[in-house]
Task: structure prediction
Amino acid sequence: MEGHAIDIQPTDALIVVDLQNDFCPGGALPVTDGHQVARAVNKFLRRFDRVVFTRDWHPDDHCSFSDEPEFVDGSWPVHCVQHSPGAAFVGDISVPLNAIVVDKGCDEDAEQYSAFDDSDLAATLRAKGITRVYVCGLATDYCVKHTALGGRENGFEVVLIRDACRAVDNPPGSKEQALEDMKDAGVAFCQTRDLAE
Ligand code: VGL
Ligand code: ZN
Result:
């Protein structure tokens, strides 16, 4: 049997996190197999009426940038600089015209892994009657995790589309830790095949 194990409701929204060139192989902060997420997303994207695309959208002097990034301490190579090719959504995906785009990390002095931090995303979704969000994208152990936890903190049901995410996994084990943290916060899990057209 193909797909559709899950019925998508009008009260459901999809959040695609940071599906940007810099997080894919060849980019500034590549996530192993990051580009494969686009293929997964294309299998269920059109089933959702409400879609959110987040993007890491840094000024060129963002506080997380370092010439000698250590990753584990929150210092990263220069990545996703506003308007640069690396910050563009990956070409394999076509962002729906009515998608809500949430930019994050725009303030040079602050890190922002969650799309719910310092944004009106929760209020916007509530105003549209959304009660549950499906989350996927890059990277499992950073912005996906914090966005999923942020969804829970703001009272949404959250479902992680497990195989439509990829992790930095630095420090090693951070991917498994992230999955555990999400589970502990009440995040549910599904797979692309449960949603696919
Ligand atoms: C991210 C590290 C730095 C992410 C963003 O999107 O997961 N990770 N900035
Ligand atoms: Zn960033």
Summary: Residues 12-194 form a domain with the Rossmann fold fold (CATH 3.40.50.850). The beta strands are 12-17, 51-56, 100-104, 132-138, 157-166, 188-190. The pocket of pyrazine-2-carboxylic acid (ligand 1) is lined by residues 18, 56, 76, 138-139, 142-143 (CB under 6 Å). The first strand starts at residue 12 and ends at 17.
